[in-house]
């Protein structure tokens, strides 16, 4: 029995990870509070509802399923909210992760795959961001994720815990079979907002800033398909099972696209113009965030298949039209 405990398995990335795990022969056991996740997104293995900070509940779940590893996605992840409510982020993301690590270490479940973020790097405009770039997060979201990275290292030194840490760039797209997809309430991410504007679920997209130092004046980001992203997680799990030890990997493609380029590609995919207006810059946005790392390709053997912008938007559009979770 190869159970893997997937915290946040009812969320956007966690639900895709559950599908990838099942496809690879593992049994994903979702542990999710459903505060931001969706029960309907749990389709590929058992579901256990619980909060990361509920140690007794975690102990029960570890005892029942005896997982061989943990994939830890559960977190609050809105930068704007983190600026206003840092306590929520420290409590849930850092405090919750500490409780999870203690529960796992107590039963000797010592292989961890952790969902971190390029937000741990902070503002590094126009430099190549590899895994050795300084981590100077600008908000409690990035800081709480960096704190969990530190915890993993300390638990590694003290308890022999092994971790693969993935620092994501901008995740987009959806399962091409549209069994699961992206569904946040409220939605803050560019691709689903563009698609909402296209099909009239919102009046218009507001472009946050058109005076950046980029060819078309809008911010540039490195978009990676959620299916490629979770494939890397399965490779990370196998890496740990092969005894290769703790490692950090950026997950981005190394190619950047501006907000206007994303909109243009969405217009091509859907055949519909994006109603939009131009607004001021959003606080905390960097001009350009692109991964400069090929470590995941070289060391993990990661081979992204769907991370071109056209495919990401086409998959997101298919989900947008077909998929829906009950509110
Ligand atoms: N954008 C708009 N209008 C919108 C929404 C977004 O113009 O209505 C722009 C943003 O300004 C940014 C780009 O689209 O330039 C992408 O924005 P997202 O909100 O989709 O993604 P972010 O780059 O802000 O955030 C991502 C992750 C975060 C992570 C962050 C690190 O979603 O979890 O990268 O910087 F913290």
Fold and architecture overview:
With 327 residues, the protein is an alpha/beta fold. It folds into 2 domains: 2-171 and 223-251, Rossmann fold, CATH 3.40.50; 190-222 and 254-322, Alpha-Beta Complex (UDP-galactose 4-epimerase, domain 1), CATH 3.90.25.10. It contains 10 helices and 14 strands. The protein has helices at 12-23, 55-65, 79-84, 86-106, 140-159, 190-198, 226-241, 259-270, 295-300, 309-322; strands spanning 3-7, 27-32, 47-49, 69-72, 111-117, 162-168, 170-172, 205-208, 220-221, 223-225, 247-251, 257-258, 276-279, 288-289. It has a 7-stranded parallel beta sheet, with helices on both faces. A 3-stranded mixed beta sheet has the order 12-9-14. Strands 7-10 form a two-stranded parallel ribbon. β1 (3-7), α1 and β2 (27-32) form a beta-alpha-beta unit. α2 (55-65) packs across α4. It is globular, with a radius of gyration of 19 Å. The protein starts with a strand and ends in a 5-residue tail after the last helix. The mean pLDDT is 95. It binds uridine-5'-diphosphate-4-deoxy-4-fluoro-alpha-D-galactose. Residues 77, 79, 117-119, 141, 170, 188-190, 193, 205-208, 219, 221, 259, 282, 285, 289 line the site of uridine-5'-diphosphate-4-deoxy-4-fluoro-alpha-D-galactose (UFG). Uridine-5'-diphosphate-4-deoxy-4-fluoro-alpha-D-galactose binds at residues 77, 79, 117-119, 141, 170, 188-190, 193, 205-208, 219, 221, 259, 282, 285, 289.
């Amino acid at each position: 029995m190869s159970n893997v405990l997937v915290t946040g398995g009812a969320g956007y990335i966690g639900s895709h990870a559950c599908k990838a795990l099942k496809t690879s022969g593992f049994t994903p056991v979702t542990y999710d509070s459903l505060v931001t996740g969706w029960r309907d997104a749990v389709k590929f293995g058992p579901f256990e509802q619980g909060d990361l900070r509920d140690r007794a509940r975690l102990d029960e779940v570890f005892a029942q399923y005896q997982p061989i590893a943990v994939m830890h996605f559960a977190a609050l992840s809105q930068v704007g909210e983190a600026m206003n409510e840092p306590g929520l982020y420290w409590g849930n993301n850092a405090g919750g992760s500490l409780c999870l690590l203690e529960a796992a270490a107590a039963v000797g479940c010592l292989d961890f795959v952790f969902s971190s973020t390029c937000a741990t790097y902070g503002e590094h405009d126009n430099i190549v961001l590899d895994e050795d770039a300084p981590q100077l997060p600008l908000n409690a979201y990035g800081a709480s994720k960096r704190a969990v990275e530190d915890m993993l290292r300390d638990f590694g030194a003290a308890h022999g815990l092994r971790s693969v840490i993935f620092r994501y760039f901008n995740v987009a797209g959806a399962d091409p079979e549209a069994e699961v997809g992206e569904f946040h309430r409220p939605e803050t991410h560019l691709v689903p907002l563009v698609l909402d504007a296209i099909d009239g679920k919102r009046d218009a997209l507001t472009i946050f800033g058109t005076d950046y130092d980029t060819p078309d004046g809008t911010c540039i980001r490195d978009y990676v398909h959620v299916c490629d992203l979770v494939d890397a997680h399965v490779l990370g799990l196998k890496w740990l099972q092969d005894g290769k030890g703790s490692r950090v990997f950026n997950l981005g493609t190394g190619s950047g696209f501006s907000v206007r380029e994303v909109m243009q590609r969405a217009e091509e995919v859907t055949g519909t113009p994006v109603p939009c207006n131009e607004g001021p810059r959003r606080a905390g946005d960097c001009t350009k965030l692109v991964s400069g790392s090929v470590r995941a390709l070289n060391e993990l053997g990661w081979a992204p298949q769907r991370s071109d912008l056209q495919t990401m938007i086409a998959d997101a559009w298919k989900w947008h039209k077909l998929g829906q979770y009950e509110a």
